[in-house]
Amino acid sequence: MKKIILFDIDGTVINAGGAGMRALNKAVSDIGGIEDVCKYFELQGSTDKVNFENAFYCAFKRKPNSKEYKKLRELYIKHLPDEVNYSVKAGKYFKIKGVDKLLDFLSKRDDVLIGLGTGNLEKGAYIKLGPSKLSHYFLFGGFGEEHTTREDMLKTAVKNAEKIIKEEIKENNVYVIGDTEKDITAAKNLGYHSACVLDGFGDKKKIFQAGPELLEKDFSNMRVWLIWLGLKKDPKGVKRGSYICPDTPIEHAYYGMTGMGSWADLKEMVSEFRKKKGR
C-alpha cells in the first residue's frame, strides 16, 4: 500500500507573506465592502469558502448569494498573482526550511504519493506555490473550493488519490502535515496520522493541546520526518507506533504533557515541566 502524504500550503510548504489576505481584502473592497475586512476574523486553518463567506458577512452583515460568491472568488483570483509577486519582491515570500529537500526525497519513492490538503482554492493554491517551484511535486489534492470543513477537504484529497492508484486507501496510510490545530484535529477526526510545523501561522498553545503525532519547527531534520512516516528505521532499533515513542519515562511524560518528542534535551524538558506545574 502506498503512503498518502497530504501537505497544507500556507505556513507548511510556503509563507506567501499575506498575499491571500491582501487579495481578499481588495476583492471585498472592489464589490463595495469595507477596507481591510480580514482584520475582523481569523483566516488561519479555515477553507477559502469559509473565509470568503466570513469576509462578505463582515462587510455586508449577511451571507453572499451564489452570484456574489462567484464574483468575490473571481476578484480574489484576479488580485492574487499581483499580491504574490509583491511578497516576492518585498522579501516576504519564502519556503519553509527543508521542505524542498523532503519533497524531492519523497517524490523519488514508489511507495509514496504526495498531494495537497489545503483550504485554498485549487487555482489559488498553485498561484501561491508558483514562485517556490514546488508545484510539480503535488499531483492531486483536496481544496477549499466547495468545502466548509477541513475533514471534507481531506477526504476529497484521499478520494482523488484512490483514483490515481486505483485502490482503496486505509486511514492508517494517510499522513497529514499542517501548521495549525485545525489541520491536526481534522486529521485525527478521520483516523489519519497528523504532524505539525511551528514555523507557520498556528497558535503554539492550541497546537500542543491538539496533540499531533509529530511536532517540529520545520523540515530541516528530515530524519525525524522519515521515521514518523515509517520510511526510515530508528537507529536505536526501537519499534515505533504512531508517533516517535520516547525511550525513557521522563521523555514519555514530557511527550504526554507537551506533544514534543524525545529529541528535546533534558534542560528543555525540565523547563517545560515547571511551566506546566506553574513553578
What labels describe this entry?
single chain; 279 residues; alpha/beta; Rossmann fold; 6-stranded parallel β-sheet; two-stranded antiparallel sheet; 11 helices; 11% strand; globular
CATH class of the largest domain, please? Alpha Beta
Major sheet characteristics: 6 strands, parallel
- Number of E-type strands: 8
* Spatial order of the strands forming the largest sheet: 5-4-1-6-7-8
The rough form would be described as globular
CATH second-level architecture of the largest domain: 3-Layer(aba) Sandwich
Amino- and carboxy-terminal Cα gap: 48 Å
Radius of gyration: 20 Å
CATH superfamily of the largest domain: HAD superfamily/HAD-like
Q: Report strand %.
A: 5-15%
Tally the structural domains. 2
Topology-level CATH name of the largest domain: Rossmann fold
Explain this structure.
This protein has 279 residues and is α/β, with parallel strands linked by helices. The chain folds into 2 domains: 3-13 and 96-225, HAD superfamily/HAD-like (Rossmann fold), CATH 3.40.50.1000; 17-89. The chain contains 11 helices and 8 strands. The chain has helices at residues 19-30, 48-60, 66-89, 99-107, 122-129, 150-165, 181-189, 204-210, 222-228, 249-258, 266-276; strands at residues 3-7, 14-15, 94-95, 112-117, 141-142, 174-178, 193-197, 214-216. A 6-stranded parallel beta sheet has the order 5-4-1-6-7-8, sandwiched between helices. β6, α7 and β7 (193-197) form a beta-alpha-beta unit. α1 crosses α3. The N and C termini lie far apart (48 Å).
Describe the structure in brief:
With 279 residues, the chain is an alpha/beta fold. The chain has helices spanning 19-30, 48-60, 66-89, 99-107, 122-129, 150-165, 181-189, 204-210, 222-228, 249-258, 266-276, and strands spanning 3-7, 14-15, 94-95, 112-117, 141-142, 174-178, 193-197, 214-216.
